[in-house]
Amino acid sequence: MWSIAGRTNTVYLFGSVHLLKPGEFALQGDFLQAYEEAAAVYLEVDMDDLSPSAVASATVARAIDPQGRTLEELMGSDAAQARASATTAGIDLSALDRLEPWFAGLAVVTQALAREGYAADTGVEQIVLARAAADGKEILGLETLDEQLAALDSMDIGVQREFLLKALDDAQRPASELERFLQSWQDGDDKALAAELATEFAGMPDLYRSLMVERNRKWALKISDLLGESHDYLVVVGALHLVGPDGLPQMLQERGHAVTRRGSSPGN
After folding, report:
1. What residue segments make up the domains of the chain, in order of their start?
2. What is the C-alpha separation between 200 and 104, in angstroms, rounded?
3. Where does residue 79 fall: left (phi above 0), alpha (psi -120 to 50 degrees), or beta otherwise?
4. CB-CB neighbours of 31 under 10 Å
5. What is the greatest pairwise CA distance in the chain?
6. Which of 147, 167, 20, 43 is closest to 99 using CA atoms?
7. 134 in Cβ contact with 50 (< 8 Å)
8. CB-facing half-sphere around the CA of 171: CA atoms within 13 A
9. By the 8 A CB rule, do 16 and 126 touch?
10. Predicted local distance difference test score (pLDDT) of residue 224
11. How far apart are CA 112 and CA 203, in angstroms?
12. pLDDT tens, 144-184?
């Protein structure tokens, strides 16, 4: 967690993990204090105002190729590698054949994590949403759902292919590697998380720029605007968005804001 001092307010930044096992996150310590002080909570996307049908409609509009091409066709010369990786990872790629590569990649990640017992319902965002609903606290988004989907959908087809291949490779990683990442998150080990970020996107600068850098820049502008207000805010985004030279704390510091690292374990 970080705190950023505004003229008359404070914005707190917290790095989340979107899918977790039950009991791996609870509102406590510095996070609970920041939550209680905040007039509103910003997530990457404001999901509490979206109905399931609206989410499904927006997703389908982006996830399926408008020209009707199959995943196999869109993967082109990388199709054989994708099929081989999917077989090794135990993923049925044929079930994703109507999807564009970027969305198929998201589906692969979700399936792989679900097999290990990780789910969005017990991830940070859903726990925060449930608490905010009970408390009547406002939830807002740094970007709309369509903006988030568009950031992925607008990626060059070559970058989308990289994204799916990376997801299939990640699905083959041993559970111990994921557990090490989660332990680094629990410990608030910024250096370990930054190393994970560098490993995740090694050799894929275009994907890194699309998923991390460009979105972080937009979010930094939004957070800078919040620092001109009078109310305190809590901003919750994926943990890897907050580490490394292109992380939000660094970007905000470069914009002249006073950024302070705070200590608190997110675990239960």
Report:
1. 2-261
2. 18
3. alpha
4. 23
5. 57
6. 167
7. no
8. 28
9. no
10. 97
11. 23
12. 888 889 888 989 999 999 999 999 999 998 888 889 999 99
Q: Give me the amino acid identity at 46.
A: D
Structure tokens belonging to residue 95? 């079930």
Question: Residue 111, exposed/middle/buried by CB under 10 A (0-12, 13-18, 19+)?
Answer: middle
Per-residue H/E/C for the chain: CEEEECCCCEEEEEEECCCECCCCCCCCHHHHHHHHHCCEEEEEECCCCCCHHHHHHHHHHHHECCCCCCHHHHHHHHHHHHHHHHHHHCCCHHHHCCECHHHHHHHHHHHHHHHCCCEHHHCHHHHHHHHHHHHCCEEEEEECHHHHHHHHHCCCHHHHHHHHHHHHHHCCCCHHHHHHHHHHHHHCCHHHHHHHHHHHCCCCHHHHHHHHHHHHHHHHHHHHHHCCCCCCEEEEEEHHHHCCCCCHHHHHHHCCCEEEECCCCCCC
Amino acid at 7: R
Regions of the chain short of the pLDDT cut 50: 268
The pair of structure tokens assigned to 204 is 């894929």
Please give the Cα distance from 64 to 115 (Å, whole number).
25
| Contact status, residue 3 vs residue 260, Cβ threshold 8 Å | yes
pTM: 0.91
Burial pattern 209-231, b for ≥16 Cβ within 10 A else e, equals ebbbbebbeebbeebbebbeeee
What Cα–Cα distance (Å) separates residue 95 from each residue in 62, 75, 104? 18, 15, 10
User: In sequence order, which residues have a C-beta less than 8 Å from that of residue 183 and are 6 or more positions away?
Assistant: none
